[in-house]
Amino acid sequence: MSLKQTLNDYDIELDDNQIDLLLRYMDLVLEKNKVMNLTAITDEEMFHVKHFVDSMYVLNLFDFKENKTIIDVGTGAGFPAIPIKIARDDLKFTLLDSLRKRVDFLKEVIDELQLTDIKAVHERAEECTKTAEYREQYDYCISRAVSKLDTLAEFCLPFVKVGGYMIAMKGKSDETDVGENAIKILGGKIEKTIDYKIDDEDRSLVVIKKIKETPKKYPRGGGKPKKNPL
């Protein structure tokens, strides 16, 4: 099945230029994957669903306002940020990852696809949010990371402006109770959790509104958000 048809099956409509950009991006990922671990998914049709649909389906579930700023924490090979950027060129992205090799690859992708208003940054989230350039500077923070919600919130919410949103792309929604206390401490409030399916697999989108500033002592360093969640 073609990428265009697959996207249409999930109510994602893109023009031919956007489809071409996605396919070129996939080729870059799969080529680099031969020498560097970027994805376990190498079948192209599966890639279309597991990476492209899974990344862009959020646009059907949440209304990202025009020309806003988004940081993708733990972006890895650029998911979900780059597919969303291709679908919504008006959005301004920062891609954050702690592994330099991945960030160098993302910079190559950005140059190759000639994407604008998007940058890749090599930094750990807990260090990055201590600087005025990044702390509470974003309208949205999105993450498709595998960390539990309480840990993820400590990494993500400090990036978000008061009034903005953290968007957590998770598996089945069975852990919101775990993260509720942490999110409150960090200045957020769970607004809603949206359950959906991609390729018959359960997914959930946790939408967290930033209602007050995150206390300066968060996020904690030294691996504490994972070792000792709030």
Highlighted features:
230 residues, alpha/beta, 10 helices, 7 strands, globular
Q: Supply Rg.
A: 17 Å
Largest sheet: 7 strands, mixed
How many distinct beta strands? 7
Strand content: 15-25%
Helix/sheet category:
alpha/beta
Major sheet strand order: 3-2-1-4-5-7-6
Mean pLDDT across all amino acids: 94
SSE order in H/E notation?
A: HHHHEHEHEHEHEHEEH
Low-confidence stretches: none
Number of helices: 10
Instruction: State the end-to-end CA separation.
Output: 45 Å
Fraction of helical residues: 25-40%
**What overall geometry do the principal axes of the alpha carbons give?**
globular
Description:
With about 230 residues, the chain is of the alpha/beta class. The protein has 10 helices and 7 strands. The protein has helices at about 5-10, 15-30, 45-55, 60, 80-85, 100-115, 125-130, 150-155, 175-185, 225; strands spanning about 70-75, 90-95, 120, 140-145, 160-170, 190-200, 200-210. It has a 7-stranded mixed sheet with strand order 3-2-1-4-5-7-6, with helices on both faces. Helix 5 links the parallel strand 1 and strand 2 (about 90-95). Helix 3 (about 45-55) packs across helix 5 (about 80-85) and helix 8 packs parallel to helix 9. The termini are far apart. The relative contact order is 0.13.
